[in-house]
Design brief:
9 strands, two-stranded antiparallel ribbon, binds S-adenosyl-L-homocysteine, alpha/beta, five-stranded parallel β-sheet
Length: about 260
């Protein structure tokens, strides 16, 4: 799989791409990522990438031609078809589901906007627009890295343990179960009682541990993200646990009072 990240601040992403899981995947050749400096695709002496907006108003807009030239160069080098993704707060929301879809593609280009955004005509060469959430950032570099990171860790052989990817949050619409490591107890806050690891995890009873984790995952999702449950892909056991938990909650709820 190839990623091409087009930006006016290559240094911002170079560092993130060199370390950790992505850095290792690149070293091992599982992944080919190139960072393209938009200024390399200008033709003027000052390497200008932005200009004032037509119609007036504050800020600057990224010019279309350098982006077109960058896309031409990437296409000539990588081949077709390219999936050109514009990072934009106006795009479709990026989710784990979107990450899975993108992980099946061959060649992805991530266009990072800056200032007031990119000239609208660039959209004629864009396959899709993605937003990482309902807030506005100063540039598309962090969003591009979010997308790249989430997609790359789904590629076969990138995260060491395939099971850890299969079991984690959102995979089937459930949040992950809680994790603990040594030591078995840590001091509580302000000299309070020690906080111990749940006994079941020390029991060595693998069937019990598996059930406990499943139940924790279902309970956490019910507590924190009940919205996920409507679309969750639960097995029989999880469905039973959910019904039980919901019953328990209903029983524990106070009586509905009349409006004051
Ligand atoms: N004026 C634009 C925002 C420009 S922000 C608007 O209101 O739509 C500058 C650049 O940052 C954008 O072009 C985009 O590439 C990036 N960006 C900002 N917020 C983002 C988000 N939530 N998701 C993805 N990209 C974002």
């Amino acid at each position: 799989m190839t990623f091409d990240i087009v930006t006016i601040f290559p240094a911002m992403v170079d560092e993130l791409l060199a370390v950790g899981v992505i850095g290792r995947a690149r070293e091992r050749g599982v992944l080919d990522v190139k960072v393209r400096d938009l200024r390399d695709f200008t033709t003027d002496r000052h390497r200008v990438v932005d200009d004032v907006p037509y119609g007036g108003g504050p800020g600057m807009v990224l010019k279309p031609e350098p982006v077109f030239r960058a896309l031409d160069a990437i296409e000539a080098e990588r081949g077709q078809p390219l999936t050109v993704i514009l990072m934009s707060p106006q795009g479709r929301r990026f989710t784990q589901h979107e990450a899975k879809r993108l992980a099946a593609l061959e060649r992805i280009v991530l266009l990072c906007g800056r200032y007031e955004g990119i000239d609208e005509r660039v959209r004629s060469r864009v396959t899709e627009e993605l937003s990482i959430g309902d807030y506005v950032l100063t540039g598309g570099e962090l969003p591009a890295m979010v997308v790249c990171d989430a997609v790359v860790r789904l590629l076969p052989g990138v995260v060491g343990d395939e099971q850890s990817v299969a079991e984690e949050s959102f995979n089937r619409g459930l949040l992950d179960f809680p994790q603990y490591t040594r030591p078995a107890t840590v001091p509580g806050p302000e000299g309070g009682a020690d906080i111990a690891v749940p006994g079941v995890l020390l029991s060595g009873n693998h069937a019990e541990i598996r059930r406990w984790r499943k139940r924790q995952a279902v309970e956490r999702t019910l507590d924190r993200r009940p919205d996920l449950l409507a679309e969750a892909d639960l097995d029989e056991e999880e469905r039973r646990m959910l019904v039980e938990l919901q019953k328990g909650r209903r029983a524990g709820l106070p009586e509905v009072k009349d409006e004051p």
